[in-house]
Design a protein that fits this description.
The chain is α/β, with parallel strands linked by helices. It has two domains: about 230 residues, no CATH class; about 260 residues, Carbon-nitrogen hydrolase (Nitrilase/N-carbamoyl-D-aminoacid amidohydrolase, 4-Layer Sandwich). The strands form two sheets. Strands 5-4-3-2-1-12 form a six-stranded mixed beta sheet. The protein is globular. The chain is about 45% helix and about 15% strand. The two termini are about 35 Å apart.
């Protein structure tokens, strides 16, 4: 019975824990929920701690990514029952990391508040790193995103989103483990709350360190096509979709024009013969454009790509700049081994893309180096960091071209905007977002949205952006070592418990 109550409480805490990832004004709730989890597992055997961690993680993820149901059922044609089961199964599977981490904490904890708080944070960090990396990774709703508008956001250019999650876990565990393990509970509570409050106040008072400096300013035109996903490839609606895109691209006034992911949804062999040439000629004058479209063929293979056109791209072998998406979405863009039967149940056009280069060149626009990434790719800050190894080629501006119309009018739009804002903070680079349904925005190097279009409307956003150069600490270490420093940190903190175990 007690195990059942623990699991129920963990499910409630996990569900609440998902809220700040969509509504970051309540960032403090993330710490409270983690504190509740730490309290539970501190009282549990390793087996019970694993069940509590699994329940917390499953509720956290299912409440965060329930919108996957829409893509699988409404647009993929999967039955409602199978779609629900798929979301639950994914959440359960990805929560196994947290289950193992909580069991490990229960096994290793030493009943010393500071050591145990750091040990809990190390176990939490290991679980988040595993979820973000193993089997291509699925880091959506990582805990650090809850703090994009909180005092811990100041840590982003130093330690990135996973580092923020580690600090949050340490703060949450410190709140409750001090109450439990210091001789007098009142003194333990004062110690825990005092230490956590001191850290939060200090971070709130510290101004962001300007690791980067401005370069030059570009004028922008960002397109938001707002094509419902069930109409995107429809023969009935495709002619007007293509016409709108062409007209807006030709009418745009910005130095740089951005069209979202697959704004042109056809492969080259499917395109009308008179469609692309006017666009190519237009942007070989004084403007530049980045346009989302697939490239390749059904026979030779195809890519989810961004095509760049400017006066300089005539020098490229194909006559245009090309970026091919590197980090593909499982099931939506590539088929994991053994799961063809599952993807065959869904009707997803262009569902088996080829992978692009891991470290592609940037697109040059009037001296600025614009680095495209497509949709889901901006979840992987460590992969974007790889573009900063050579500072002479490092991006001065990021550009995310997305289509999350697959998920309808849901919190996925808010969540993806928060993710992009975190990347801006980590690298102190502006992020341009041209999307099908939203959020089409310009984010400055401090993670602030400076220009935006209302989501789920068709429109054009005219704006300006200031490029940045320089290197944040996160960009420096992540570009050279990826996420290994965080893994080493977690391992080192666990090793700290071993001498204590021997002495005891």
């Amino acid at each position: 019975m007690l195990l059942g109550l623990d699991v129920l409480l963990a499910l409630v805490l996990g569900g609440l824990h998902s809220l700040p990832m969509s509504y970051p004004a309540i960032w403090w709730l993330q710490i409270v929920c983690v504190a509740g989890l730490a309290w539970q597992v501190s009282r549990a055997t390793p087996w019970r701690a694993a069940w509590v961690g699994l329940s917390f993680g499953t509720a956290w993820l299912a409440a965060s990514v329930w919108w996957l149901y829409i893509s699988m059922h409404l647009y993929g044609g999967l039955s409602s029952t199978l779609a629900v089961l798929a979301v639950v199964a994914l959440s359960l599977f990805l929560s196994l990391y947290l289950a193992l981490a909580m069991a490990l904490f229960s096994r290793l904890r030493r009943h010393r508040p500071l050591i145990d708080a750091l040990l809990f944070a190390a176990c939490w960090l290991l679980a988040e790193l595993a979820r973000g990396v193993v089997f291509t990774g699925f880091p959506w709703a990582a805990s650090g995103y809850a703090h994009i508008d909180g005092p811990l956001a100041n840590l982003a250019p130093w330690i990135g989103v996973y580092g923020i999650g580690f600090v949050c876990a340490a703060l949450g565990a410190g709140l409750v483990l001090g109450m439990r393990d210091v001789g007098q509970r009142s003194s333990g509570a004062v110690l825990g709350f005092g230490a956590s409050a001191t850290v939060l106040i200090a971070l709130a008072l510290i101004k962001p360190v300007p690791f980067t400096r401005p370069t030059s300013t570009l004028t922008l035109t960002l397109l938001q096509s707002n094509v419902p996903q069930d109409q995107k490839f429809s023969e009935q609606y495709l002619p007007q979709t293509l016409l709108w895109a062409q007209q807006q691209l030709l009418a745009a006034k910005g130095d740089l024009v951005l069209g979202p992911e697959t704004i042109v949804p056809l492969l080259p062999e499917q395109m009308p013969t008179d469609y692309w040439k006017p666009l190519a000629l237009h942007f070989q004058r004084d403007q530049a454009a980045l346009i989302g479209r697939p490239l390749g063929s059904f026979e030779a293979g195809y890519t989810n790509s961004v095509v760049g056109v400017s006066r300089d791209t005539v020098k490229w072998p194909e006559g245009y700049y090309r970026y091919d998406k590197y980090h593909l979405v499982p099931f939506g863009e590539f088929i994991p081994t053994g799961f063809r039967w599952f993807t065959d149940l869904m009707r997803i056009p262009l569902g088996d893309f080829s992978r692009g280069m891991r470290v592609p060149p940037s697109f040059s626009v009037k001296g600025e180096r614009v680095a495209p990434n497509i949709c889901y790719e901006d979840l992987f800050g460590e992969e974007l960091a790889a573009r900063f190894v050579d500072m002479n080629e490092a991006p001065t501006i990021f550009a995310n071209l997305s289509n999350i119309g697959w998920f309808g009018d849901t919190i996925a739009v808010k969540q993806h905007l928060i993710i992009s804002r975190m990347r801006s903070l980590e690298f102190q680079r502006p992020m341009l977002r041209a999307t099908n349904t939203g959020a089409t925005v310009v984010i400055d190097h401090l993670g602030v949205v400076t220009h935006s279009l209302k989501p789920f409307t068709q429109g054009v956003l005219d704006a300006k952006v200031e490029g940045r150069q320089g290197l944040t600490p996160f960009a420096w270490w992540a570009s050279r070592f990826s996420l290994w420093p965080l893994l080493v940190l977690a391992g080192a903190l666990m090793l700290l418990t071993l001498p204590l175990r021997r002495r005891e």
